[in-house]
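If your schedule permits, I should be very grateful for your opinion on a structural question. What I wish to show you is a protein chain and, alongside it, a tokenised description of its three-dimensional fold. Would you kindly read the sequence against the tokens and tell me how you understand this chain to fold? Here, with my thanks, is the record as I have it:

===
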Amino acid sequence: MVSPGILLVDKPSGLTSHDVVARTRRAFGTRKVGHAGTLDPMATGLLVIGIEGATRLLTYVVGADKTYLATIRLGETTATDDAEGETIATAAPEAWDAVTDPAVRAGIAALTGAISQVPSAVSAIKVDGRRAYDRVRAGEEVVLAARDVVVSRFELIEARRGDGSLDLDVVVDCSSGTYIRSLARDLGAALGVGGHLTALRRTRVGPFDVTDAVALEGLDDADTLTPAEAAGRLLPVLDMSSDDARDLRQGKRLAGQAGRLTAALAAAVDEDGVLIGIVEKRGADLKSAMNMPEGER
């Protein structure tokens, strides 16, 4: 029997997130595998993979904030806001006069904090039941609604000026749902020269870091985090007595124990260190928001 766990994978460029899931299924010998947040084929970096019953924890990973390393090229606009799309506009030579170092810094600052962002039309967002990128590929014009996101850090690491281009290496800390391609597009638009993403690497998802991830070639010998270990990184931990563990697994509330909870949710762990599930307050009581499948350790 395959043990449940959370696997951290460093995705290489050229593969889809689904490709990584498929390879994980083969390596671990189970169909029950999922991931917490898509990376574009061009992108590299951290994919958080759930195996067996630990897929239930992915709900609590998806909404975590993230860190990216990226390269933005100013001077060219593409149809997809990244290097994989057709170039549809290039900056006029005279437009570069306004693209000074202070102007670049001001443009980055304007895209930092709580912002309203229009996702790239070539995204996985569903429009009337179909992915936006499928509609674009079918020749439809897609305009997505703006969404509120938080970019807590948008820091310029290095700038390299070329002939008709300016490459910016940046690091971005952001809320879930932020599109780095859209930051590149919007920065270029604000500076009047256009822009797109040429490289993207996700280095962090919530408490999980790419430095702890395994390369795709190492899947067969990869170690996983137990559900209790992974949940303990995501949430506060509540230790449960054997009686309380039994009651939670049977769907019962723990009367009068809501005061034990210091956050909206917590990981409930039994005396053997096994994750029972995720608990929440319900009035003065504690109740399960999610229970792990029984028999999985």
User: Anything to note?
Assistant: The CA atoms of residues 104 and 254 lie 55 Å apart. The longest strand covers residues 147-162. The domain at 236-291 is CATH 2.30.130.10 (Archaeosine Trna-guanine Transglycosylase; Chain: A, domain 4).
